[in-house]
Design goal:
2-enoyl-CoA Hydratase, Chain A, domain 1, 16% strand, alpha/beta, 10 strands, four-stranded mixed beta sheet, six-stranded mixed beta sheet, single chain, globular, 10 helices, 253 residues
């Protein structure tokens, strides 16, 4: 599920979970555990990347449809826990976006402190509303924190995905790099942040992100029940099924 290596003060964690690094219960739990292990280690910064041409395609929709509402509720819980753990991680985190980063995959990247995307035919974005599902409070606030306010509504309501150059323009990523040097560039940025005072960095990050966590806690209290209800309604699952059929439809012959 993961490949891990240590380069001086930096841990490089590569997601290697099937063809698409799709977010399922096991991957969310595994990534949450890896974040905890990183925090307890002597490593001072983390680079998070994917394998092949996929950072993450987002939620595993095929499994969601196969296992239905009970699985959806469990997935929402563990995805929420993982995103929070990544977002509040007191050490520097750099996302090296090596390929497609769609929906939940884009949000995982946005939880990092710095995001570098490989140039190429990749797409990133948050098309959740196209599927008919609302953003859980944690995911919504992570995106709100990552992008400029004037870009937020277009990103969320437009439901589009973007090229690396467009993602840079919209603030979904901080910089671009050639694929051959993507991880090297991410490690260099992680080393730069690792050289900062760990205590000062952690305090600064906490002060920046604590207001976000307050909104997340408020959003959970106000909206979680409705979010969970919509995600598990039969009409929502049917909309997801139709999206999957369109997206994965194979040409005849």
């Amino acid at each position: 599920m993961f490949r891990e290596k240590h380069l001086g003060s930096v841990t490089v964690l590569e997601i290697a979970h099937g063809k698409a690094n799709a977010l399922d219960v096991e991957l969310c739990l595994g990534l949450g555990k890896k974040i905890e292990e990183f925090l307890a280690s002597s490593s001072r910064a983390l680079v998070l990347t994917g394998n092949g041409n996929m950072f993450s395609a987002g939620v595993d929709l095929l499994r969601l449809l196969a296992e239905g509402a009970p699985y959806a509720l469990r997935l929402l819980d563990v995805l929420d826990e993982m995103l929070e753990g990544l977002f509040v991680c007191s050490k520097p985190v750099v996302a090296a976006i090596n390929g497609h980063a769609i929906a939940g995959g884009c949000i995982v990247a946005c939880a990092a402190d710095h995001r570098i995307m490989a140039r190429g035919p990749w797409r990133t974005g948050v098309p959740e509303l196209v599927l008919g599902v609302p953003f859980p409070p944690t995911a919504l606030e992570v995106i709100r924190f990552a992008v400029a306010p004037e870009k937020l509504q277009q990103l969320l309501h437009g439901g589009q995905t973007y090229t690396p150059e467009e993602a840079l323009h919209h603030g979904l990523v901080n910089e671009l790099a050639d694929p051959a040097v993507l991880v090297d560039r991410a490690v260099a940025e992680a080393e730069r942040m690792a050289a900062l005072s760990p205590r000062a960095f952690a305090l600064n990050k906490r002060q920046l992100r604590e207001p976000v966590m307050e909104r997340i806690r408020s959003g959970r209290a106000r909206c979680n029940a409705e979010v969970r209800e919509i995600w598990t309604q039969p009409e929502t699952l049917q909309a997801i099924r139709q999206y999957v059929e369109r997206t994965f439809k194979k040409p005849s012959g």
